Each structure stands twice: as C-alpha cells, then as structure tokens.
Amino acid sequence: ICYIINKMWKIVFYKKDNLEEPVRNFIVNLPSKERAKVVQEIENIRSEGIYLGLPFVKKLVGREYKGLWELRVRFGSNYIRIIYFLHTKKNFVLLHGFKKKTNRTPKRELEIAKRRMIEYKNRRR
C-alpha cells in the first residue's frame, strides 16, 4: 500500500479587525504581469515551504524582527516584497506587501509587519 503525504504548506492572509486582508488587496491591485509573478512565488512557498531559499525568500535580520521572512519578487526595476511568518508547523501568514526601489527595506514596512504578527499571535491565544 502506498500512501501519498500532502507536503503542501498552508498560506493564510492576515486579516485586520474589519476583516480587510491587506496583502490580498496589495496583490489584487498590482498590474496583471506583476500579480501573476507574485502569485507564482506564493505558490512556491506553498509547495516548498521552509526549504525555499535565496533568492526567493530571505529571513529578516535583527532580533526585533525574529521570525519574519520576506518573499522577494523582482519585476524589471520593481522589487516587490511580501513579509510573512511561520505560525505553526505548516501555516505561513502573509502580513504585509509593498514595492521598494532601494536595497534596504524601509523600517516603516518592517514595523507594520512586526505589529501585524504580534496582533495575529495575540488573537490566537
């Protein structure tokens, strides 16, 4: 007897108190070609999970951002980032999406993701 084990990870969109999903809204409002590439990379996270590495995903550095990762999508001169974290063994939560033009990720964007991660964890207690 052969058993097929589903190795897929689950992708969860962070929801605000008003049930708005900021990352889903960000993705939906991207131009169609950029949106398609971002969706493909999210599917890669779903299938590869924690084993997907650079250049597609990168662990954020700094103690204050412990547990946060960024999905890295380059489209021409645009750098699209989606910050997420692993909530349980198989659940990734997409927290914040944005475009950037420089190598450094703006602290403001990191703080939004960090705040949302804390809120998400607190709601699950």
TrEMBL record:
Residue ranges that the Swiss-Prot or TrEMBL entry lists as coiled coil: none
Listed Pfam families: Gp49
SUPFAM superfamilies: RelE-like
The name this protein goes by in its record: Type II toxin-antitoxin system RelE/ParE family toxin
Species: marine sediment metagenome
Lineage of the species this protein comes from: unclassified sequences, metagenomes, ecological metagenomes
